[in-house]
């Protein structure tokens, strides 16, 4: 009888453990970072206007601004502003959009502004309001090697449990508790906050050894 009671207790405890909510955790993100030797000379960069994939209607300016803000927090790069009317960026973005980078345009732009690299980005998915989601594909191109030294490709979709867990983890570890009624869910209600969150996660993949 005692053995049966003990077995029942263990089973009930295990069931309760399965039903307990797991603590929020960051989700895995698809990214690439080159070897330190390839990264060493990439210090002065420019972030080109973000593109959007065919069929996607996104606020690319807001996404790009959030990305630049997070880049500057790294204190790793000197982010050179893109002058109004610069024509080279259009050639580069158009070539990337068609799957082939214009190396000549990249070199001309980097020589003109004394750059080590160019950051290019494409919004692959976008929904500003509930349930919000934002997908991006970004890459940092080194003018010295002509190769990609940093690339991130991910989608943050609040229909997905891993994104919700990641968002809660972000709210608990990065944001300050303002005591608002909505708490961490405010990040899903305000497009700017959700965009800032995704930009933070993308830039957070830069971890040099």
Class derived from helix and strand content: alpha/beta
Low-confidence runs of at least 5 consecutive residues: 9-19
The biggest beta sheet reads: 7 strands, mixed
C-alpha end-to-end distance? 58 Å
CATH level 4 superfamily of the domain at 30-157 and 190-203? ABC-type transport auxiliary lipoprotein component
- Global Rg: 22 Å
* Structure annotation, total helices: 8
Average pLDDT, to the nearest integer?
A: 84
Please provide the ordered H/E string of secondary-structure elements: HEHEEHEHHEEEHHH
Q: Tell me the total number of β-strands.
A: 7
Question: So what's the overall shape?
Answer: globular
Describe this protein's structure.
The protein is of the alpha/beta class and about 210 residues long. The chain has a domain at about 30-155 and about 190-205: ABC-type transport auxiliary lipoprotein component (Rossmann fold, 3-Layer(aba) Sandwich), CATH 3.40.50.10610. Helices cover about 40% and strands about 20% of the residues. Strands 1, 2, 3, 4, 5, 6 and 7 form a seven-stranded mixed beta sheet that branches. Helix 3 crosses helix 8 and helix 4 (about 90-95) packs antiparallel against helix 5. It is globular and about 50 Å long. The model is unreliable at about 10-20 (pLDDT under 50).
């Amino acid at each position: 009888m005692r053995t049966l009671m003990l077995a029942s207790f263990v089973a009930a405890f295990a069931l309760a453990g399965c039903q307990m909510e797991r603590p929020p955790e960051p989700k895995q993100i698809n990214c690439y970072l080159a070897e330190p030797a390839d990264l060493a000379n990439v210090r002065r960069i420019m972030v080109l206007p973000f593109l959007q994939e065919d069929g996607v209607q996104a606020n690319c300016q807001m996404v790009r601004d959030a990305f630049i803000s997070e880049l500057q927090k790294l204190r790793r790069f000197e982010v050179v502003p893109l002058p109004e009317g610069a024509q080279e960026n259009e050639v580069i973005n158009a070539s990337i959009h068609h799957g082939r980078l214009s190396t000549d345009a990249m070199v001309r732009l980097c020589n003109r502004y004394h750059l080590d690299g160019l950051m290019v980005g494409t919004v692959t998915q976008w929904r500003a309001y509930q349930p919000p989601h934002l997908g991006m594909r970004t890459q940092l191109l080194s003018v010295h090697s002509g190769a990609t030294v940093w690339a991130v490709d991910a989608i943050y979709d609040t229909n997905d449990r891993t994104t919700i867990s990641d968002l809660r983890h972000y709210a608990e570890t990065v944001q300050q508790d303002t005591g608002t009624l909505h708490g961490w869910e405010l990040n899903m209600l305000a497009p700017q906050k959700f965009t800032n969150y995704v930009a933070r996660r993308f830039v957070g993949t830069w971890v040099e050894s």
